Batch of 3 targets.
Target 1
Amino acid sequence: MIKHNLEHIRQTIRSACEGAGTSPQEVRLIAVSKTKPLPKLLSAYDWGVRDFGENRVQELLEKKKNLPEDIRWHMIGHLQTNKVKQLVGHTALIHSIDSLRLADAIEAEAGKRNIQVEGLLEINVAKEASKFGFLPEDALAAAQRCQLYSHLKIRGLMTVAPYTLDPENNREVFAKLKQLAVDINFKTNDNTNMEYLSMGMTGDYGVAVQEGGGFTTFVRIGTGIFGVR
Ligand SMILES: *Cc1c(COP(=O)(O)O)cnc(C)c1O
């Protein structure tokens, strides 16, 4: 089942790229494995997945301990500042930096250990009351503050688009996130480099891939790989 699902997703990504004139090389698939047991993750691993996304620190660390070392772990869920200490050093990328307080905490912890940490600023593009993230109008100021850090490197933007049955409804959200990244790139120094967009989930990743051209787009897919949670 997981093999079949992955084949379908990889094919959909290739088709979306062809339609938009972008390269599949620019797209990275993250298997969102929250709540799923280890054997399912191992199965995805066996079919070539090396990027996994989790939304809880404890669960991410537990799974990391028990799975192959070449897996890149992505923190995609809201992160409390009091959990930063445990998480720092264990991720390829923290997607969900949604406040300057959190960014400061990550910088401080990374500084203490003298390591580099890479992260994305989460943007609440559609301004949903239920969602975390910087409002689009606050994103530039946040990025300009982060460019002063010496251990946390901001490499792009992330968004969780509104839930919808028609992915076309989110096209504008993805286009806005990219435009924001382009603007921020012009107005920040080299320490803040907008290379990554993290956008698109099971319901809308094809549209996200089409809108992400010119950047590396991380699509975060859970249900489409592992089935309903
Ligand atoms: C759960 C989750 C996903 C995956 O959602 P699916 O609809 O199951 O693909 C992606 N991003 C974030 C931030 C999530 O919490």
Note: The longest strand covers residues 152-158.
Target 2
Amino acid sequence: MTDTTTPDTTSADKAADNFSTLALRAGYDPAEHNYASSVPIYSTTSYQLKDEDRCTAIAGFEVDDDVYTRISNPTNRVLEQRLAALHGVEGAVVTSSGSAAIFNTLLNAITAGGRLLTTYRLYGDTVSQFNEVLPDYGIGIDIVEDPDDPASWEAGIKPETRALFVETISNPLTIVPDLEALAAVAHRHGILLIVDNTVATPYLLNPFDYGVDVVVYSTTKAINGHGNAIGGAVVESGKFDYANGNYPQFTRKSWFFKDRSFNSRSVLDVAPDTPFTTRLGALLVTLLGASQSPFDSYLTLVGLETLAVRLDRENDTTVKIVRYLETEKAAGRIVAVHHPSASDYPYRALADKYLHRGYGALLSFDVDSEERKKHVIDALQLFSLQANLGDSRSLVIDPFLITHPELTLEQLRIADVSRSSIRLSIGLEEPELLIADLKQALDKAFAQ
Ligand SMILES: *Cc1c(COP(=O)(O)O)cnc(C)c1O
């Protein structure tokens, strides 16, 4: 029996209605894999090519049969097709890490002399990649003056700007940007809107519903959910016009994409519906080598099966924890709570517009001093002090010291990150136990 439950995945709306079914089944037909129910790990470097006819078809990009695992792998392909289906689109590529997903995406979108317009409301290592690495290779980085104001983004666009980049739920302050407004700005200038949707995951937000062109993930986080494999993914809308003159790398005829008669072609000739991920996968990931390990794709596939139920529970627990922290704020033991469910959260209208299945499991709170922050973190017992998020275990981290050390004090100020901030990533433990842990830690910190 073929897998008739793998639904038509061409419409984003449809994908929204059957998220868990897609997360369990899309992109995989057991009949093609000895009827194995769980996706097999294809632990092989290369594949028997059978004969010269098949080699000719492969070399001409007529079939996407596997040749060598740095180029493609059946386990990786299931994860790619499943992630594409969860977004209601066609094109996705997995990478060795979220950082590799971001790096390869920017190399694909911006050639030497081009520029990226972004903000400091980003994961710390992303800021470092932008500040420390890309400019040396000819990709300029500009920081928007007021990230809350679409007009400020528009004003920041230079003739060389090729993409805008934001996180859909920023870390640690959980700020939700106005994606539709940013997409309108980007498209008025014929450039890409690229978003990092790691914290939201495709379950809370499908960025393609709002005009986003390219979505990147660290699958390491909630998509995997079990803290056991580093990975990344790049997904594309399939709607952007790469022939608009701003992206000659997509229209240039290249020997690399030649057909079976040795005619050079552009990537748009080869893959008109998925040019971004085809070029990213076939050229950049393949040639620069940031391919995902099939074993890690397998772990990610297993984790992804339960994304919806994990996030439903984590969303509920997180709101309970926010309510508790707000009572501590009223009692004067906490200075601020940052989460879309917090009563004074300044971006509520945007969170409600874009996050339809809950506000997510990441939050942070500020205490009155760095000294107090240290005492609270050291007194927590159930929360693990760990640099990860989206794990099924609840985690705590000091953003100033660990996740955002790359930001200078001035950049932290611009990003509104407090030095007395504590970030929590809520997992699947009983909410009452997590709240009790926070309470005893605050009690201890105030008894010092
Ligand atoms: C962790 C993270 C990354 C980097 O991903 P890795 O898998 O660790 O390389 C990028 N963006 C966000 C928002 C992250 O949380």
Note: Residues 1-11 have pLDDT under 50 and may be disordered.
Target 3
Amino acid sequence: MKTIKELTRKCIDSLQPYSSARNEYSGKTARVFLDANENPYNDPINRYPDPLQCELKNQVAAIKGVRPSQVFFGNGSDEAIDLMYRIFCNPGRDNAVAMEPSYGMYGVSADINDVEYRRILTDSAFQPDIDAMLAAVDENTKLMFFCSPNNPSGNLIERSRLIRALDSFQGITIIDEAYIDFAGTESMTALLDSYPNLVVLQTFSKAWGMAGIRLGMAFASEEIIGLMNKVKYPYNINCLTQQAALEQLQQRDRMKKWVSQIIEERAGMAAAIAELPVCLHVFPSDANFILVRVTDASAIYNYLTDNGIIVRNRSRIALCGNSLRITVGTPQENAELLESLAEYCRI
Ligand SMILES: *Cc1c(COP(=O)(O)O)cnc(C)c1O
């Protein structure tokens, strides 16, 4: 296994990061804050937020069964994805290997950072072909992306495949678990201490119901988290976001109720959609959405849109021909969708 230091870009390894006022003084005993050129009025948002989000990290670490030093928060998971490229990939030289189809941001972020993105098709059940992914690796491959449960297909990746990648790939393995709360399986965070090159992504945007506050999580070895802290914007998580997340964490019961309601609705929706004459296949889902292959995705998409119902047309994505990705909503919303689909079948 290559060391994290060997994988890190030279300029990042040697980087002297910006040291903010709140980095240099983080004690609790000061009464008078005249160090950061803040406005003394307009409490509490006049103050810069905690650059390392210590309170939030302590609480999330306890919930996730990791150490606070293994936690990073970003402006959405997208910040953590972008940081992987900026920390490990030399523009114009290094590359990333990823399962395809999967989340679009991995490739967009690669393009932005001028990093070659090697897409390796999954099998027809959307399981990654680990042999093919490893065969696509060369000496400049720094990152390998997996998404489990996968977006847009909805399925969990078999654990044995992920373990094989972790055991064989020398670079950084990223496993995006944005939808893990809907899957009822253990998170790969349990393996953090065994694999110092593993990065697990999660988010407040899905199960926690907080897409609007933009808060993503990355879990990794202290060495990787240290690099992420070094490269991120000093105050990347604003104080309103930190406050809202802390409040939501006090209401875990509510989150769990939402998740079980959504899982229950998912089963009902999958069964109902499968009955429709326009439905060719309902892909099994471990997430809060269902991928459905239909007879004519564009026509159905347009019909639903005309009726005020928006789903995602994934037809142009690899292996997703004529497929719609449908998010599980409230029982009322789901009933409206099913009614509209039934109506489409009648005309
Ligand atoms: C929704 C989603 C995310 C979450 O992104 P945020 O930037 O945290 O909102 C991450 N990964 C995948 C695969 C997703 O579908």
Note: The chain has a mean pLDDT of 97.
